[in-house]
Amino acid sequence: MAPVPKGGTVAVTGAAGFIGGWVVRKLLQRDYRVRACVRDVSDETKTAFLKAMPGYASGRLTLHAANLDDEGCFDDVFAGCHGVCHVSHVSDYNDQEYVRRVCEHIIESINKSGTVNRVIVTSSIAAILTEGDITELVRRPVLYEDRSPDEANPKRTPERGHGYAMGKLLAQRIFSDAAAEHGDWDAITVCPADNVGPIQSPHQKNMGPWQHLIEGMLRGKYPQTQAYRPWMTVDVRDDAECHVRLLESVDIKNAERYIAWSTDTRNVEDICASIDRLLPELEFDVPEVTDDFPEHIKAREAEFRAIWASVELRNDRMRAATGVEFRPLDVSIRDCVESLMSVAGVEPRRRGESAEEN
Ligand SMILES: NC(=O)c1ccc[n+]([C@@H]2O[C@H](COP(=O)([O-])OP(=O)(O)OC[C@H]3O[C@@H](n4cnc5c(N)ncnc54)[C@H](OP(=O)(O)O)[C@@H]3O)[C@@H](O)[C@H]2O)c1
Question: pTM to 2 decimals?
Fold first, then answer.
């Protein structure tokens, strides 16, 4: 088991995505050769921004078609790679058997490669904090890298909306166990928080969810999110930087988990005020927050807010291993808004214009 050598070759799954796209760019900036995996190489709406990156013209960046639902799709891609960043979503987190099958065929391709030293598995803070019973956060309020939800809680089922968190934890374990069994590579899990920051391609405005929510806010749609959980954020560029530095670290070990977050939080009702404060030139017409939660959630608003206000966000292990300096959320919000406008052509509602409309 070893870190990836400087200038080595790294495959990135989900390379056309919000996080994957930044992982590709950061890897190129740090002199790596990159194999970017996307489902459809010829889909210019998703791949043009990758093809425009420095490195594509010379061949240091190559694009590869791979659908995770097809077993063996990574055999050729991973052969000769030193590292893999498995950033991609899967097609269905609710089907845990499917999640297992996908992990297993990716692992088979890694084993077959004979060259991969390290795999970064992109998980989520959901695998740390999404509880079947939210009061578990009162009992264990420190959100740190070795924390997992109470897995014995009977409400923790895909049917009750826990498929994503369960699937992410399952994937982490399958990769770590496979790496331990194989012995020649290690699997390191990154748990990103809510990613905010600049999009690189217009199609990414529809993904997220966070940049998509900000797009909606700019257009006047401003719903409450996550049952009153404040946004717990990381800048997407810092998240990508965490992925790359974990590939390079000589101090980390198989099965370890790292949280990518700045530890900044903000309530959803303060996001639009932040946009207005950060970019007064926009004359952004700050919309009213709507609350579309069902009555039983609304009835517990004060309780939920109090619980979230009392949790403590930590990522001591990530900070020690990578030394990443996390950008403040204000910078991520500002750059997200500016990219939504400049890259995707999103037009915010402006005070004067709204008055004219009315
Ligand atoms: N965004 C966040 O705030 C956040 C927070 C925590 C964790 N995460 C995790 O971070 C990872 C990336 O998130 P993201 O926000 O960058 O997502 P994203 O922008 O939606 O991108 C996800 C990518 O996954 C790929 N994908 C989905 N199903 C696939 C399949 N069956 N086969 C191959 N590729 C498939 C898509 O590929 P194509 O474009 O090629 O179709 C897409 O580019 C995910 O694992 C997510 O769970 C994200």
Answer: 0.97
